[in-house]
């Protein structure tokens, strides 16, 4: 069994632990009314997008999400939360150091605390039980989002039950043979759709795209044809499923909690990788963390 296959299968248990941890770490996470930014890179950025929408929907305060490299340093925030599995990513460390010097409170949600992040973040929330050996992130990302989701009262046992269902149920037939995948979301699940497409690209080198569900109609639906899959991680707009089917595409409707739907996509990515003879633990051109030294990427 690959590392990523094992780790994705442990997600329900990790989510339970994160939800239990959230009350104890309440003081170092964004407080109601604080103007907050959540940052990350790659997968962590997409989790930040989802978490930002959830926090605003919960009435907790204005919340933005940025890739760490694109953080607008001229803006003022009451707190910045950084999601970083490894605690070594250059852009995250550089940003946290700059925010520390500017006096902006920061919290890092991290898988491995024994890394440089402990010297630049004001506070740490350690999810070492969700850290991973794999390059391709699954459980750390969804566990970090569950922590933030629980913190704003938007997580419940049903999400964990749905994740177990996502691991147990067969995938829709013939998906692994398809050549192109589009993932759609609405609200907080738009970030999950972006992450679903990234997982397909990373693990299986599949052609994968992602959009807000209504935006799919504004041009991208033109790629829909026989051999393509359109997967809605959340409730779909009226008539969209029929439109995809008329174009000859395969429609997959999200039935579970959107985060559990992402777990189903994790499984699909591995199924497509296996069909193509790829090793998901050795994704092409990727390393576990991007560390820059003298302008060049160091392998980590």
From TrEMBL:
Transmembrane segments: none annotated. It comes from the Bacteria. Pfam families: SIS. Residues 26-170 form the SIS domain. Keywords: Isomerase, Repeat. One of its GO terms (molecular function) is isomerase activity. It comes from Streptomyces amritsarensis. CDD domains: SIS_GlmS_GlmD_1, SIS_GlmS_GlmD_2. This is Sugar isomerase. InterPro entries: GlmS/AgaS_SIS (IPR035466), GlmS/FrlB_SIS (IPR035490), SIS_dom (IPR001347), SIS_dom_sf (IPR046348).
């Amino acid at each position: 069994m690959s590392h990523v296959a094992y780790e994705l299968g442990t997600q329900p248990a990790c989510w339970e632990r994160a939800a239990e941890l959230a009350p104890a770490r309440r003081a170092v996470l964004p407080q109601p009314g604080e103007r907050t930014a959540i940052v990350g890179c790659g997968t962590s950025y997409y989790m930040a997008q989802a978490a930002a929408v959830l926090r605003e929907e919960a009435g907790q305060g204005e919340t933005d999400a940025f890739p760490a490299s694109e953080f607008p340093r001229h803006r003022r925030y009451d707190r910045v939360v950084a999601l970083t599995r490894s605690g070594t990513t250059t852009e995250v460390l550089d940003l946290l150091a700059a925010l520390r010097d500017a006096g902006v409170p920061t919290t890092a949600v991290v898988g491995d605390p024994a890394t440089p992040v402990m010297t630049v973040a004001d506070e740490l929330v350690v999810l070492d039980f969700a850290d991973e050996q794999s390059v391709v992130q699954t459980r750390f990302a969804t566990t970090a989002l569950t922590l933030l989701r629980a913190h704003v009262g938007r997580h419940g046992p049903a999400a964990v039950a749905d994740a177990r269902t996502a691991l147990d149920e067969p995938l829709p037939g013939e998906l692994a043979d398809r050549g192109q995948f589009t993932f759609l979301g609405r609200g907080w699940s738009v970030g999950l759709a972006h992450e679903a497409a990234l997982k397909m690209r990373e693990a299986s080198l599949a052609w994968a795209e992602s959009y807000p569900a209504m935006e799919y109609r504004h041009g991208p639906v033109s790629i829909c044809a026989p051999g393509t899959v359109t997967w809605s991680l959340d409730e779909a707009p009226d008539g969209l499923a029929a439109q995809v089917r008329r174009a000859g595409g395969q429609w997959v409707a999200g039935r579970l909690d959107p985060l559990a739907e992402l777990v189903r996509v994790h499984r699909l990515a591995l199924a497509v990788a296996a069909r193509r003879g790829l090793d998901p633990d050795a994704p092409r051109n990727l390393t576990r963390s991007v560390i820059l030294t003298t302008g060049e990427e160091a392998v980590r």
